[in-house]
Design a protein that fits this description.
Elements (H helix, E strand, L loop, with lengths): L3 H48 L18 E2 L6 E2 L18
Antiparallel strand pairs: 1-2
The chain binds zinc ion.
The site of zinc ion has 8 residues, from loops.
Length: 97
Amino acid sequence: MVDAGTVYLVASGALLLVALGVGARVLLAIFREGRERSRKRREGEIDRFTEDPVYDRDPPDPDADGSRPSTCPHCGAENASGFTFCRECAGPLGPNG
Ligand SMILES: [Zn+2]
């Protein structure tokens, strides 16, 4: 006669194996789906970067508002108007450039 402890052990072991099998299958499906999705997303990004007309648009004209980019007196780097310090050497951009 098999005692209750052994039955419990076998039953829980079988349940554990079933759960592991189902869980592994679900995890595998999730993993495959995620990989497929990331691959599609990568292709989508490539399409967006090559086909979106926004990326072919010219940058806005810096002189459109009447101000000019100022050249740094220390390193000669060109800085957009409105900045007080050079973006290259962080030196002060005088009022005359
Ligand atoms: Zn500078």
